[in-house]
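Researcher: I'm preparing a figure for a lab meeting and need a structural model of a single chain. I don't have an experimental structure, so a prediction will have to do for now. The sequence is pasted below. Please return the structure as tokens so I can convert it later.
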Amino acid sequence: MNRRLVPALLLPLLAAAGCSPWYGLRLDLFPDGVESVRGVNVTPIDFGYAPREDVVGAAIGPLQSDIRSVTGLHLAGLLARSDGATGVSAGLMVGADGDVDGVTVAPLVFTPYRHSDLGGEFDGAARGIQVAGILLDFPHQRGVSVSGVLRARTLTGLGAGYVFTDVRDRMVGLSIGLVNRARRLKGVQIGLLNRVAERAEWWRWMPFVNVGWDAGEDGDEIARG
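Model: Understood. Here is the structure written out token by token.
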């Protein structure tokens, strides 16, 4: 037998015995000790185990794909969740508990999953192109963000919430929505009503177009990363 073929045949057996990384196609059903996948990780059914794999290649789930980190393609029919992703992430819902870089598409929502941003404890950043049909709520956004309702702590670039764009701290760039709100603004808001909280009371609200030049003490450094 070809000596080069023997290691290739043994790789699946070694991975099944708990060795990492796993190379090639893997069916992710039960905890098996594999912590790294180089290839395609398929989750036919997610039984709710804690995410444990770092995938370089593609992570796919017909319903749900819950992966520790993904570099490449992360695709799920219902929910694509990770602790961090680089590349393309897509699913009816996308949840991330870490930084996301690349392109994210979610016809319903794109938000943190296990972490709540209400208390300010989660500090994740989404960088690139983020599109959600109903709600996009992620602490720090940089690039292009589009959704029905768009919420961020800081946003740099283009933020378009066709119903409501709400930047709870600092906005740098262009904000578009029926209603736009930011605490501090360095850029332009375009919408029916536009509000910048840290202004004199008489001009906090502006109709149609609002221009600002105040990004706070940090200047242009408004989004983490």
